Amino acid sequence: MKLSNLAIGEKAIIQGIERGCPAEVHQRFLDLGFVHGAEIHIHNISPLKDPVAYSIYNTIISLRREDAERVLVTLAN
Amino acid sequence: MAKSACEICDLNASAELKKLGDISGKFDYTIALAGNPNTGKSTIFNALTGLKQHTGNWPGKTVTRAEGSFQFKDSKYKIIDLPGTYSLMSTSEDEEVARDFILFGRPDVTVVVVDSGRLERHLSLVVQIQEITNKVVVCLNLMDEAKRHGVEIDVRGLSRDLGVPVIPTSARNKEGISDLLVAIDQVATGKYIPEHKTISGISGESREAVQMVADKLLSIDADLPSPSWLAMRLIQQDSNIQTALVNQTLSAKVDSENIKETIDLANHYHEKLGFDYSDNVAGAIFAQVSKTVKSTVKTDTNQRAFRVDRMIDNVVTSKRFGFPIMLLMLGGILWLTIIGSNYPSSALSYLLLEELYPLLKGGADSLNFPWWLSGFLIDGVYLATAWVIAVMLPPMAIFFPLFTLLEDFGYLPRVAFNLDRLFKGAGAHGKQALTMSMGFGCNAAGVVATRIINSPREKLIAIITNNFSLCNGRWPTQILMASIFIGALVPSYLSHTVSTLAVVGIVVLGIGFTFFTSWMLSKTMLKGQASFFTLELPPYRPPRILQTIYTSLIDRTLIVLWRAIVFAAPAGAIIWLICNISIGDKSIALWTIHGLDPIGLFLGLNGVILLAYIVAIPANEIVIPTVLMLTAMVLGDASIGEGAGVMFEVSDGEIANILHMAGWTTLTGINLMLFSLLHNPCSTTIYTIYKETNSAKWTAVASLLPILFGVIVCFVVAQIWYLLT
Ligand SMILES: Nc1nc2c(ncn2[C@@H]2O[C@H](COP(=O)(O)OP(=O)(O)OP(=O)(O)O)[C@@H](O)[C@H]2O)c(=O)[nH]1
Ligand SMILES: [Mg+2]
After folding, report:
1. Which of B127, B441, B517, B704 is least surrounded by Cβ atoms within 10 Å, i.e. has the fewest?
2. Which residues bind GTP (chain B) (predicted)?
């Protein structure tokens, strides 16, 4: 499933970055720790619903919806 | 003076630290400060050099490299504060500065500053840098915060695992700096040789690819530094590295001929492996780091501090309170500034104008100065300067510390987070909220800050619209006009509140223009889609109030004030001259004012205001003094002003009287507020825009567009006003 579909309170494990996004974007995701196996959950949502701040590796990263759609995750149990 | 036992103790290494500031000369060693954004690099830099790099709790505060120096034991060190970088593999403008210096600048020691509470991500940069050089010292900064968050680190174990010195510090409290110095010294002088490490765990084909390309590189030059890292970059088609090899920057033995085959091979692997390769490398790095962290760090994720951050965020970015709180903060800061600067402003003008000015005049008379010399120096240069100090100093001395407190707390990135949706709708970058906020202090600083925006299109939009952030130099105009013409419309107990609301209204209008102009530009001259953007929200950090007030007074307020004075003095001279040199029966100033009057009235302004804006191009700060001085001259009433081209001292009430006498109405006041928001940037900002864009065309657009808006808005308001009255 896509990271953008994650709900508040759910924990997910990152599977990877969607193929077909530009190389810099792909690399930037990796730099921030969006690598296979990383745990991620929603920290909070901005007043206008977009962007959403995610907590990953103990840091808080905000992503716009269309970018969060590029991250593939599975729910952690 | 007697020294305490601690100060003379051998173990007290900072006793041997001499901060040398930015003086140049010969250096024994070069030190680079690298690390992810917002880890305290600039704070450490300041502690070592005694310089005053700006620091702030948001990623991207430092955008250019700064150099300083210090002496420790017998060696002199040059130290470079680099912009924060998440990795060495990305190619954004500010991050490239850092990467290129580590690679091409060949520092003797690279100090990697990491956030002790977030090692899982921060150590991945350490691992990458170790791939380039073994001369690394890891600085575990923000230890105080990590402790508060319940993070426990086995420092020795970590050092053993990484193979480099690891020094825990709390830079803001100056803790651990002396240990850091000792480690830097040992690595620089070769007393301690850190291990050479490479990234392990890259799997299968990707590893083979790196190996093959690295071998090829080594066959050309066996002494090439960090071949496997170069190989990794070549496989990712990093054009900077390709160019550096072709141009012999990295090695004299490599040239465009013999490197070709290697680059072809790397390209071949790039085609074959695609994104799998990057995934593989990053995966290996993070896996390696996770292993290290697991064995050396204990975290209690249920700590109170985490929950507090979460709670604050749930309020300040919530649907219900997010926007109201932003407005409240803005209004609060403005209100405090307006209320707070009232009294010191009048005290200062009493001192400088009513007390000191007659003394100076009298002194000049007793020294038999000719009238034109004392007029030029005292009525022109001195008075303009005194006015600017009286008008500028109090609001700045209140605004800058308040803003810095908010910045240090970590609120600014939340503003960006809240506003991002709107910026996206306008086709702009989310970090524009940060550069816009910086613009409230100074537009030139806001323009430089746009370097955190990677997409050139969105960076241009941020530059062009920065002038719509009402900078500090324009506040006195707003505050005075609001109190005289708008606050006066209501009962006096309400007047401060109402004038504050009027200024907030102007600021919000400016933000509205920022969105509108961004949207307009991205539909016309700068067409395009909003680009990829990530923003890290830093943890909230309780600011150190007294220290913040002290440093923002000394560093920011005085520097900005100095700039204002430097511009005010010559402007004062010019004003005096144009008022006292006559052509025919009128002074140059009067000729111009009468010439501009029809245009002024058409816009709901007047000739004096327009001339003041021409004189004040170098600095917005002097608009109000110039307006008052010119008005007095036009009125030609000796009982008000001191004579032609003399700025006089008056209280708000008297200023109001004089302006009313000169025919000002509420419309003039309102339109002056609007025009002060919507006109060309000051000359410093224009110059900065030119330096950042390198384009006369965009500099012209950024300078002229606001005037165009100003003329249109003032015209429309004036016409509506005339219709209604
Ligand atoms: N609590 C605490 N705060 C610190 C410490 N060191 C720095 N800070 C704060 O952390 C924030 C970031 O510090 P900077 O020195 O600006 O960080 P930087 O690494 O230069 O950041 P960039 O220039 O954005 O890369 C500031 O608000 C500092 O006051 C520390 O040891 N403890
Ligand atoms: Mg910095």
Report:
1. B704
2. 35-42, 81-84, 141-144
